[in-house]
Amino acid sequence: MAKSGPRGQSTDAEQSRSADTRAALVLAAIGALREVGFSRASAREIARRAGCNQALVFYHYGSVTGLLLAALDEVSERRLATYRGLVGRADSLTKLVESARAIFAEDLAAGHVSVLIEMITAAQSDAGLGDQVGARLAPWRDLAESAVREALAGSPLAAMLPAREVAHGIVAGFLGLELLANLDRDASRALALFDRARMLASLLDLTGGLGLLPRTE
Amino acid sequence: MAKSGPRGQSTDAEQSRSADTRAALVLAAIGALREVGFSRASAREIARRAGCNQALVFYHYGSVTGLLLAALDEVSERRLATYRGLVGRADSLTKLVESARAIFAEDLAAGHVSVLIEMITAAQSDAGLGDQVGARLAPWRDLAESAVREALAGSPLAAMLPAREVAHGIVAGFLGLELLANLDRDASRALALFDRARMLASLLDLTGGLGLLPRTE
DNA sequence: GTCTATACTTGGATAGAC
DNA sequence: GTCTATCCAAGTATAGAC
Hints:
- Two copies of one chain form a homodimer.
- Chain A has helices at 12-36, 43-50, 55-61, 64-88, 93-110, 112-124, 127-152, 163-184, 188-207.
- By secondary structure, chain A is mostly helical.
- The first copy, chain A, has a domain at 70-207: Tetracycline Repressor, domain 2, CATH 1.10.357.
- The first copy, chain A, is elongated.
- The N and C termini of chain A lie far apart (64 Å).
- At the A-B interface, helix 6, helix 7, helix 8 and helix 9 of A face helix 6, helix 7, helix 8 and helix 9 of B.
- The structure holds a DNA duplex.
């Protein structure tokens, strides 16, 4: 962990209480980002949710932004741990799309990607934050890339669909679909799209790629 | 236009000056959304950019949010006018992807989609704003839909790719790619993806759809 | 219509008691 | 480590002079 408290010395009981406070603040920060957004995720708002004092945000994390980045770390780690297993088993395009659909639905319900999007958007107008958020996005991109690589292994499509490029598109697609689903308060359009993609994927899996069917005209 | 000023009576000169002020405020609001984001797009920040007094924001638009919505309207209208012509001429998947790439590049440079994303994100934590932003997003979705419809007209792919669903995916993809390109301060990944899509599109255009090529194993 | 001045609120951050 | 108290900066919004 990057942060272990501003001071070095403390008893076991104090350490434990400190750890509890820090955990509560991080959870509260995640909730605040999801429910009221970056612009209203103030130290006071977060402390109220955590049931502690506003000053502790600065004591433990130095600044509100510091705490919000810790919240993004937490979400990122939890999510990667859960999903690595899921996509590790996808050895075809069809299964990859099925995994993607499941992940999208769970993310939307849990609000994971909302947290990420809030931070990405906030970073647009703050170069320093941009680098930090970008670094925390890398593992998600890597996960998508290895999933694509695995799903395309041995398929003639691999030559036409470089994993890095496709992974970038997948991450972008997730972000955009989440943005729209939250705005509409309706995920059905996104889910329908996943279903459609699944159909096409199984077609590609069966035929082994794009065939060169002669025109029928 | 929805707003014509809080009062009814004024001389021509006053109307003209008022219109100038309103236009300056809208332009300044667009710039503020792009450069410092929703959370810092305050009445004072916008008025400073417009070279006028902070109180005029409230006089002309009632609230900061009212002005920001007017800014979104302006961007939406300008953008639609420009791009309707572009996609109207796309009668194949290849040309559709080419149009999409051109639009993406221009949007990114001009910051149009940044404005939209700022408002969408802000709307996540404000239900009232959500409806207003959603309504302003509809024309963009419609534009994408009619473009897809036109590009697929007469193609066997049309049956497999319903225009409404695909359009939703396209809008989501634009938003996500823009989000990532701004974060990375680098559009090359997105542009590479468009190039890849163009290649696949021309393949589909040539073969007339997904062929059922027998497996070679 | 536009300005100045101001009332009121909220937020970041720190000092110092406990 | 945690709290109370406080300072200061910035924001929304309105009243009233010009």
